[in-house]
Amino acid sequence: MADCASAEGCWPPQAKKECAPAAASCCGEGGGACGDGGPAKVEEEPSSSSDGGKSCGDAAAVAAPESVDVVISNCVINLTPDKRPVLSEAARILKPGGELYFSDVFADRRIPKHLRDDKVLFGECLSGALYVKDFGQLMSEVGLGAWGVVNHLLITANNEKILERVGDITFYSLTVRAIKVDPSKLEDALEDFGQTATYNGAIPGYEEFFSLDLKNTFAKGKPTPVDGLTASLILSSRYGPHFSVTEKGSHRGIFCGENAIAGGPVGWALFLAKEAKNAPPAKCGSCCC
């Protein structure tokens, strides 16, 4: 596992206390993660130090290409002036079928330059919020085009000065799952080939159901109709061994199942434009809670 972390080169004290052990517990013997402003791999090594012997550094120096199963991040990518190197590095170090799983601040439009330069908004994790459509295009360009929204929360500012600055921009905290998949293996979204996917309940912590994203939740043992893109995505991902996906049949036209939400940059942007303002509020004024 690798974590795109921040705060002076590694975990800040409170995050180290609360988050580092949790991240390490996900890694088994392979090690955990941390870094400064970009993904960095953490390797387990004998140590009696307070950080549990986890080393921090520049991912470009310590993580080999296609060597990491999962890259995680919490409210860090928005703080980077240029998102492309961070996302490109995540794509570089992920194994085929691996995933970038992160939460961050997004906006319903491009943030104007004078707000991007605002130090107060930067401190609130708002000035660097990503516009969903632009984010999706960037993800495709760096090789992580197969992505979806797992959870979304509305961010509400309780400070009048901040509200005056941002005007009618809507901010939300999104949890995103992106799978590194060869684009040639992916079917177009929302095409119906009569396929179903059945989850076997074998992922620890998700014995009864597993949510791939907001449009696809799979109950254990229940065949669930899926569009061609979702079927090929499951089979190409690290979750493939936990699913039985039926063979692709003849083309039946547009997929119209209950879980039919157009994916991709435009599809998710439209979904959020319609649904975000009805989303549950975040617990605080940013995603960094």
From TrEMBL:
Catalytically driven reaction(s): arsenic triglutathione + 3 [thioredoxin]-dithiol + 3 S-adenosyl-L-methionine = trimethylarsine + 3 [thioredoxin]-disulfide + 3 glutathione + 3 S-adenosyl-L-homocysteine + 3 H(+); arsenic triglutathione + [thioredoxin]-dithiol + S-adenosyl-L-methionine + 2 H2O = methylarsonous acid + [thioredoxin]-disulfide + 3 glutathione + S-adenosyl-L-homocysteine + H(+); arsenic triglutathione + 2 [thioredoxin]-dithiol + 2 S-adenosyl-L-methionine + H2O = dimethylarsinous acid + 2 [thioredoxin]-disulfide + 3 glutathione + 2 S-adenosyl-L-homocysteine + 2 H(+)
InterPro entries: Arsenite_MeTrfase-like, Methyltranfer_dom, SAM-dependent_MTases_sf
Biased composition (Low complexity): 47-56
CDD domains: AdoMet_MTases (cd02440)
Residues covered by the Methyltransferase domain: 64-142
Top-level taxon: Eukaryota
Disordered: annotated segments: 33-56
Top-level class of the enzyme under EC nomenclature: transferase
SUPFAM superfamilies in the cross-refs: S-adenosyl-L-methionine-dependent methyltransferases
Assigned keywords, A-Z: S-adenosyl-L-methionine, Transferase
EC number: 2.1.1.137
Keyword Transmembrane helix attached: no
UniProt GO molecular function: arsenite methyltransferase activity
PANTHER family found in the cross-reference section: ARSENITE METHYLTRANSFERASE
Family listed: Belongs to the methyltransferase superfamily. Arsenite methyltransferase family.
Name of protein: Arsenite methyltransferase
Organism: Chara braunii (Braun's stonewort)
Lineage of origin: Eukaryota, Viridiplantae, Streptophyta, Charophyceae, Charales
